Amino acid sequence: MEIHRLFAVAGALALGTMTLTPTTAYAANHPAEAEAAQSANVGNPVIVEHVLATDAEVQAIERAIPNLKRHEVLPQPNSLAAVTDVQWAKLHTYAKGDVVQRLKVYPPAGSQKTEKFYYRDGTLVMVLIEPNGEGHKGHDDRANDERYYFDASGLIAIKGDGHVDGNPDEQAKAHGAKLQRESSAFLSLASSQESGKN
What we know:
Blueprint: H1 2-14, H2 24-29, H3 31-40, H4 45-64, E1 69-73, E2 90-96, E3 99-106, E4 114-120, E5 123-130, E6 146-151, E7 154-160, E8 163-165, H5 170-197
Antiparallel strand pairs: 1-2, 2-3, 3-4, 4-5, 5-6, 6-7, 7-8
Helix pairs in contact: 1-3
């Protein structure tokens, strides 16, 4: 397991997608990773490990989409006005049993922007904002997207342009809190419409 983590971190560092500065304890237990991280001059190893694990989890969810139960919701105008000024045209939830794994919101006419929300056991772990996500399935790795990573404390990292920021500023944290409120509102709307059909 440790060797896989080493290759994942070393690969991410070689691609220039992440940076980390190892703590003394981390460096003592993972000398090769710590040395690679030091030479790359990157951020917190716990954050990087969380980002790598979340990215792997998101890839697994994307591969599972054909086997998940999809539910479509067409929001009424202004039904989400308390959390967003975007008049989203529709949203899809993808669930394993009753547990939502991914939620995707689609833009109003004239926009291509989509937002995908990923969950672990019902808890938000990542939001992927794709400026040109409308009109294609899956994810284009070459897309100029933004990724927001969450743990129990809230927003912990942002990834954009191939770089991870494991120390979001107050403006980024406020945006992360807004994404969490959107997520809750979207899930609530989807749940109420799903239960209304039964």
